[in-house]
RPA43 OB domain-containing protein
Amino acid sequence: MGEKRKSQQNGSLAKKPKGSSKPKKSNGSARIEDAQPPIPYPQAVDGSSFSEATVRLTVTLAPTHSQDHWAGIHETLNSMLLHYVPQIRGVVLSYSKAKVLSSAALLVNDSPYGQLDVSARLLLWRPVSGMSLKGTINVQSPDHIGLLLWDTFNASIPASFIPKTKYEWRPFSDEEVAARAQATGGGGGSAADSGSDEEAAGTSGAHGAAFGSGEWVLKGTSQCVGSSGGLEFVVVDVVRADNVLSVTGALR
């Protein structure tokens, strides 16, 4: 009897109660880590990225322009075109209504260069965070979408700023790659035909053949972004490199 009781006690020790095991961690944390971080959309800003401003500036005239001060003024204003000017906080696109404010050029100390005060009306490009812009797609990759604004300025939408709940990357099939290569003249033909094909491909928007290995599409469909002729996005950041501005955007 004593041995039987001992074996029963050992059996009870061997059996662990059902609730004694530690609860397993749910996969919710892993899913949260895999989820896309929230996109830092800035506060919306209404208005155009273009503006006009009348500015006053001092033009330094070289001795060669002493007989024709307007040549020196236009030379200075022309050098500002398509450049970002920090004092004006914008890219100068054009100027008009230039006016001389000084009665005569001022010579300082022994310098042969004269200083002349002038005013001009400037057309500026001033994109700011929160604005909505529309550009033409010129490159697509799994990492980003590249755009051209008004055939002049560059914009980029990183993949981290593309909502994965609405958009997805669709790789091209081998047949699509071959067809796009042929559309750009890779399949032979005359130079004239090749040139016309390239022009057609360049004007086809998001369907251009130079988009590499795939394209961004609306999730669950085959409709590529920018298929309507342009892609609208929100300006997240404006990047200045030397005298050039570029825009970083995000899709809604």
The chain has two domains: 50-125, 132-250.
